[in-house]
Each structure stands twice: as structure tokens, then as C-alpha cells.
Amino acid sequence: MHPPSTLPAPTREAAPFPALRRQGLSTLQVNLGYRCNQACSHCHVAAGPSRSESMDEPTLALIPAVLSARSLTCLDITGGAPELHPGFRALVQRARALGVTVIDRCNLTILLEPGQEDLATFLAAQQVQVVASLPCYLPANVDRQRGAGVFARSIEALQRLNALGYGRPDSSLQLHLVFNPQGASLPPAQAALEADYRQRLGRDHGVEFHRLFALTNMPIQRFGDRLRAEDRYDDYLALLRAAHRDEHLAAVMCRSLISVDWQGYLHDCDFNQMLGLGLDPLALPQRSSGSAHLRDLLRADPVGAPIRVADHCWGCTAGSGSSCSGSLG
Predict the structure, then answer these.
(1) Of 106, 192, 245, 283, which has the most beta carbons under 10 Å away?
(2) What does the H/E/C string look like for the chain?
(3) Does any domain span residue 326?
């Protein structure tokens, strides 16, 4: 079964968002499960220590086969904390052996968890790109959003990565940080914010990184529930719609990416995954089951297929745009 939707039923299929089709497929974004050592207030996955969903071995084994069959160039691994999955390291090694770029969506504090003491060294040895959540350079803001003491542990983890060469200007070990707004607002301009991060983290903690990705908070799961509790859900959607820019439609991540949930089912993006919106039935008409599955990508190509859209999609085109690699403009 897919995770339950938190988007009101009338808007799920009737959103007046522009129609989209997949242009190509270069990235497989895989969610290994929802277990996490943190429970962040903005988490669109609603991950946490009590979650038990986890990808099984047969599904995990399909990933390298699909990467090869579709000649994909990037494996983007997410969770939860994906590093907690017992098959995480073997998956990374198999993908890297294929010459595929591997991205680890890392919450940083996982590097300090018992049993993960050698994780940073493993990531460096495999040349894994680390995309690390750090929603602010101020301790109070981070701890408010992610939990008490998270900022200090995040800085310690960043320093550990820097010591291995991650984030250094002349290093191939890529380290990128992720910013999310504290509430129901669009992120500020990415370039200016990146300069602030670089100055504050370098001055106060000696931390270096390559790029900052500024992401828009999506009105789903925990953040969506919070908006409804505060009676601000409709206002936030209106903000996103009003800030829409057509030029971002060509670069939204769903046009070159497919998202895989922990059961192996396919979605156009991570946000559709959290709403239980599988691929459009026309995307893989020769699929082997009712819902498109990872195994279907072994013999079918979804390029050119329609992409399912809904109200939350306005978050990707609002303001400077938002994708897994930060702003679009």
C-alpha cells in the first residue's frame, strides 16, 4: 500500500497546473524507507525513529539492473535516513561499479550515530555526493525545526566531512547544503543566501561546502498538517500559485527523474510519492501490475509520457523555482 495522502481529495486530480511530459530519464531517486534518527517538523516524508517501512532485498536488487537497462547516470538515495538501511552500502558500491553518480540525502547527524562511525569514510571512498540538510546557520532556528542539539551535531558532522576533503574548493568530494524556510514563505534568493551561509559557517565553525540548495516547503505531510492546524493551508497554496513562473516548467525535476518508493512503486517525484500518486497509467502501458513498479523499467521507457500534477506542484515553479538541486532560476 502507498502512504496515505494528506492532500484534500478534491484538489488531488483537479489542479489547474500546466500539463507536463517527461523529456528524458537520467536520475533514479530511491527512497529506502522512512526510518530516521530525527523527526523534523518540515519533513514531507514524516520520517522518524518509530517508522519501520524498509525496502526488501528483491526490490533493492532491481535498482542496479534498472540503472544499467535504462543507462541512467545518477542514483539519488533518500529516506528517512537512507544510511540506516542494512543494504545501503552494498547498493552504493554496486551503483558506483556501474559508473553511476550516487547522491546521499544525508541529515548529517546520522554520521554520529552508534554503528555509523565509519560512514563518512565509506562515503568518501565511494566518491558519493553528500547533499546535507542544514535549514539555517543559526543554532536556535535549526534546533527549533529539527530537534534540540541538532545544530551542534550537524556542525560536528560537517567538520568530519571537511576533514576527509568534502566541501573543499579543490576537492572532487561534493558537499552541498539544503535550506528550507522556517514557515509558510518562499525561500530567499539562493545565491545571496549561499554567500551568507558560507560566511557564517566559515567564520564561526570553519566549515566549507560547495553549494547551497534553497528548497520550497511543500504543503504535504507534517508541513501540510501544520498549515491546516493553523488555518493557513489555502493561503499558502495561493502564495505558491501567485509566485508561479512559466519559465521554470522546462526545468522541473520530474521531467528527467523517476521516484521509487520503499515498495518499488514508481512516481513522478518524491512529493507525488508521499501523496500516493503513482505514474500516469499511460506512462508505462505495458506494466506488469496495476501500479507501475521498478521492474517495469527493465523493459519499458517512460520518456515522453505524461506527468501527474496537483496543487503542490506550484511549489516547484514558485519564485526562483525549487528542485532537488535547489532553485531553477
Answers:
(1) 106
(2) CCCCCCCCHHHHCCCCCCCEECCCCCEEEEECECECCCCCCCCCCCCECCCCCECCHHHHHHHHHHHHHCCCCEEEEECCCHHHCCCHHHHHHHHHHCCCEEEEEECCHHHHCCCCCCHHHHHHHCCCEEEEECCCCCHHHHHHHHCCCHHHHHHHHHHHHHHCCCCCCCCCCCEEEEECCCCCCCCCCHHHHHHHHHHHHHHHHCCCCCEEEECCCCCCHHHHHHHHHCCCHHHHHHHHHHCECHHHHHCCHHHCEEEECCCCEEECCHHHHHCCCCCCCCCCCCCCCCCCEHHHHHCCCCCCCEECCCHHHHHHHECCCCECCECCC
(3) no
Q: What is the pTM of this model?
A: 0.91
CATH of the domain at 125: 3.20.20.70
Residue numbers of the domain that contains 129? 9-317
Report how many domains make up the chain.
Answer: 1
Query: Is residue 305 in a domain?
Result: yes
Is a pLDDT exceeding 50 seen at residue 1? no
Residue 311 lies in a domain: yes
- The answer to the question of residue 16 being in a domain is yes
